[in-house]
Amino acid sequence: MGLFRFIGRLFKTALILVIVLVALVAVAGNLSDEFKEFVDKGRETISEELFKDGGALGNDKSSGNSGSTSGNTGSSGGNNVSEESYTRNASIQLTRVRNHQKVNRRPSNYLFDYVYRDVVNRGTQMKWQNPKSPVDNINQSFGLPHDFFERSFTSNAEIRQVAERGYFRVKNNVASPDYNRLIEISKYITKPIYEMIMKKVGNDRSFQKPIDELLKFCQDIPYKIPADVFNNKQTGGIFPPSLALTNGYADCDTKAVLFASVLLHNPRYKIVFITIPGHLFLAVKGVPKPYQKHITYRGEKYILCEPTGPARLAFGQDGFSNYTIKNVEPIRGYYN
């Protein structure tokens, strides 16, 4: 078996050298279109070899489900769609392509193609799909009616009912986005992102690696504040993860919800949202290192986490020198 393995590696090395040589000649314009096509296919083959069997992005045998289960909790947007239909064909690999957020809208699904820079500034490409019907159901339901604040309601119960239908909540006569519900309904939508992150960092029980990688993914999504009115609904200046991903942009609270909805696929993580004047970010329960900023909430330490971007702040950095915390809100996970 050792001899056959050696011969296989030798053949692969020779193939790479041949393809590199052919590529150089192709650049010089001395090859036919057929040979150029062969070179392109060769590059794809080499790329696939690099990212499998413990290659650059980890072992394909890793399930990427550290701490997660395949239960039926969470939401698929109100449609009878299997969880597998969200995670099928998801892939992640290194790339030299520039950052982008591309979405191919097909009759039955959304095909996502996102490129970001990882913790060591390598181009990383994620491709995955979501079934279209449940995603559209969330996107169309989200938000308050455009005339919500001008309507005459018959009771407080009716006000709450209308708000909750759009994933808002009413507290102290103020309607605001319900962060916990936005995360809950995004469980299946963000599951492939979690699995790709875990495949890339490796399923080695590291506490910080998934956080670091997910931070870069979120920070590289273009920053843009959602319109106050979108799809004829009042948004409160936030998108649920489904709208952020299909539109390819997000602001601070949108990215905080997106980040949490991905990371909470692992029940080891506990998250709180932190509101300061004009901004929202989050913190993750853990043991802070000397250089990591943190808060203490209900006797537990939470390390600051800033996914907003475009500054690529590390875990434990917040980007602010002086601020007053207005509110700290605990976020429910999928498994508690």
Written account of the structure:
This protein is an alpha+beta fold and 336 residues long. It folds into two domains: 2-50; 84-331, no CATH class. 35% of the residues lie in helices and 21% in strands. The protein is built from ten helices and 14 strands. A five-stranded antiparallel sheet has the order 12-13-11-10-14, covered by helices on one side. Strands 1-4-3-2 form a four-stranded antiparallel sheet. The protein has a three-stranded antiparallel sheet with strand order 5-9-8. A hairpin with a 2-residue loop joins strand 12 and strand 13 (300-305). Helix 1 packs across helix 2 and helix 7 (187-201) packs across helix 8. Residues 24-56 and 58-74 have low confidence and may be disordered.
Secondary structure layout plus pairing:
Blueprint: H1 2-27, H2 33-50, H3 84-87, E1 91-94, E2 100-105, E3 109-117, E4 123-131, H4 132-141, E5 144-145, H5 156-165, E6 168-171, E7 174-177, H6 179-184, H7 187-201, H8 209-219, E8 229-230, E9 233-234, H9 241-247, H10 252-263, E10 271-276, E11 279-285, E12 294-297, E13 300-305, E14 327-331
Helix pairs in contact: 1-2, 7-8, 7-10, 8-10
